[in-house]
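Response to reviewer comment R2.3. The reviewers asked that we include at least one raw input/output pair. We reproduce the pair for 4-oxalomesaconate tautomerase here without editing.
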Amino acid sequence: MSGPAEVRCMLMRGGTSKGAYFLADDLPTEETVRDELLLRVMGSPDPRQIDGLGGAHPLTSKVAVVSPSTDPEADVDYLFLQVAVDKAVVSDRQNCGNLLAGVGPFAVERGLVRAGSSETSVRIRMVNSGDFATATFPTPDGRVDYSGDTEISGVPGSAAAVVIEFPPREGQLLPTGNVSDTVAGIQVTCVDNGMPTVLIPAEALEVTGQEDPKDLETNGELTARLHEIRLEAGKLMGLGDVTETTVPKLTLLSPPRHGGAVTTRTFIPARVHTSIGVLGAASVAAGLRIEGSVAHGVAALPEEDDRLRIEHPSGFTDIESSIDRTPEGGLRARRTAVVRTARKIFDGTVFPVPPTGGRS
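Raw output as returned:
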């Protein structure tokens, strides 16, 4: 089996990413058949993805699969799939908080959730991790309205706000059990508030953390060092051999330059994010709140405000974050909320390249 010759699809921008959104019922149920189909839909493997929907970058080669949820705490299930650009690889090893911004509107558009008369809240279960989120967005007259005056860094223009709130997570905020660890000779903090992330002071790797993403990507000595750190940290965080996966993310921290809490450069895992992912920002923000983390001495934290401004290459992301202790004495994220935007780009049918079609 090679999957259908045409598939109903909606292309959406979610946050600072872009991806193809599908109903689970419109895709093959067998994972290998589904993944092979999605590679052809996105045009992978090919560095230009010239014969598919992909945009030749990890941030624009993403897929959201949405279905009604059987969990009483959620309205819909959201499975995120990262489609590699130049490899025949489809991974479900991580969440994507940017495409998450489009899941609620997509669920309303496809009739999975009935829209309210002025705004709608959609409870979402993220299948990749089992975590939950609630997305709230405007639906005047029972229709999704994508227009608005909310601006987010990394996206031109403005759109309607999508407020995403995450409940307290049940898992460990510190996957290694330590506030800091020495990994490959570097002091780091491993944190997971929805996205497994390794926080690293930029100066420890002899860079400023303010560099242009391309300059960091082409720094061979740096990328080799980060690869070593990622492999070792992955094992410490209980993720096993992460050679072929995109988690954990690595985030370099340096002092803020524009009034925020910290400046970031995030590797995903080899390319540098042109901004920062929603769940990555959530993990960074929680890490900044942990006393004794590697962020202390780097970050400039507000004394009484839960809102943190995370600076990144194309601007900033504002995120509300607070932590507290569990009854067992561990740490957990008490509240995490972020404002994103999303937009429907097209809704129709995608015709994947035939399975016998060649690519050069």
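DSSP finds five helices and 16 strands in the chain. The radius of gyration is 20 Å. Further pairs are available on request from the corresponding author.
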